[in-house]
Every structure is written in C-alpha cells, then in structure tokens.
From TrEMBL:
InterPro entries: Acyl_CoA_acyltransferase, GNAT_dom
Organism field: Mariprofundus micogutta
Keyword vocabulary terms for this entry: Acyltransferase, Transferase
Keyword Transmembrane: no
EC number: 2.3.1.57
Pfam annotation, one family: Acetyltransf_3
Enzyme class label: transferase
Protein name: Diamine N-acetyltransferase
Residues spanning the membrane: none
Record Gene3D superfamilies: 3.40.630.30
Single annotated GO MF: diamine N-acetyltransferase activity
Residue ranges of every copy of the N-acetyltransferase domain listed in the record: 7-169
Length: 169
C-alpha cells in the first residue's frame, strides 16, 4: 500500500466491487475514459478486476480515502515496456471525489512509485480533446500535449479527436 495525506493506493478488495460496478456502468464516465461501455454485472466487474491485477504489463491500484478506506477511484499504468521504461496512464475518480484533491495526490504518489520501483521514465496518456477539465488537470500535473489524433474514436454518433500527452518522470 502507498499512503498519502488523504489518499491510499491499495489493491482492490471484495468490498470495492460495488463501487467499481457503479463506475463501470456509468456510461458517460466510460465514454470519457475512451471505453466502449457495456452493461456490466458484478461477476463481469470482478473478472475485470482480476484481469487487471493479473496482467504482467499493468499496475493497478484502487484509490481510497485514507481515513475511511472508502474507494474513491482507481489508477493504472498499462502497456508497461520495461526496456523503453514507459507505460500508459489511466485514472478514474468517482464523481463525489472529483475536484477534491484525491486525483492530484494519487497521481503524484503513483508517479513516484512507478519511477522508483520500476524505473519508469515516461508516462503517456490519451484523452478526449473536448475533455478540457482532464487536459487542464494533466497540464497542471506536468504533462505536455504532444499531438492530436483527428477523428480517432467514434462515440455518441460522431468521430472525436484524441489528445496525446506525456510526462518524463
């Protein structure tokens, strides 16, 4: 586990399945995460958690409030390349925790962890170009915009641009 002032990065437990079930079934949130949302059962969400945890090239942590241990989101580094020392970031917060400082602290802790434990030097991410709040968050966190894939994903009846960002740790 990784402890911050207000957030805790820990493995998910059985008590977190209902929270993750709600996230995975929030279609607006899933579209914002560049996912193709589908209805998820508790069984499917449990299988998704197990898959994330078993993938050799992925690090996955549940984010929890340090005081209550209540789940508030998750963070992951996928497509980890230990030769190039890079990976793809994903972070998702429950709606009650957006703007409360949890994501900022979690990202700082996670970046330090992947740098100091796995020698990761570069983190990349993809975000919908019209998700200005997320882009502002990443810019504030030291990420640089490095490109845009024009009309890259088809969602909600239209093609949308995807902004590419990166940060050297």
């Amino acid at each position: 586990m990784i402890f911050g002032n207000k957030v805790l990065l820990r493995p998910p437990c059985d008590g977190d399945v209902a929270f993750l079930y709600a996230l995975r079934n929030n279609f607006d949130l899933q579209f914002a995460l560049l996912s193709r949302p589908k209805a998820n059962s508790m069984v499917k969400v449990t299988a998704w958690i197990e898959k994330r945890l078993s993938e050799e090239n992925t690090l996955f942590f549940l984010l929890a409030d340090k005081e209550s241990n209540e789940a508030c989101g998750f963070i992951q580094l996928a497509n980890i390349d230990l030769v190039s020392r890079s990976g793809s970031l994903g972070i998702c917060m429950g709606t009650d925790y957006i703007g409360a400082g949890y994501a900022e602290e979690a990202l700082d802790l996670f970046e330090s962890y992947v740098k100091n434990t796995f020698n990761i030097r570069k983190v990349t991410l993809e975000v919908l170009s019209d998700n200005r709040r997320a882009i502002a968050f990443y810019l504030k966190s030291g990420y640089d915009e490095v490109g845009v894939w024009k009309q890259h994903v088809f969602q909600l009846g239209k093609f949308q641009d995807v902004t590419l960002m990166e940060k050297f740790l």
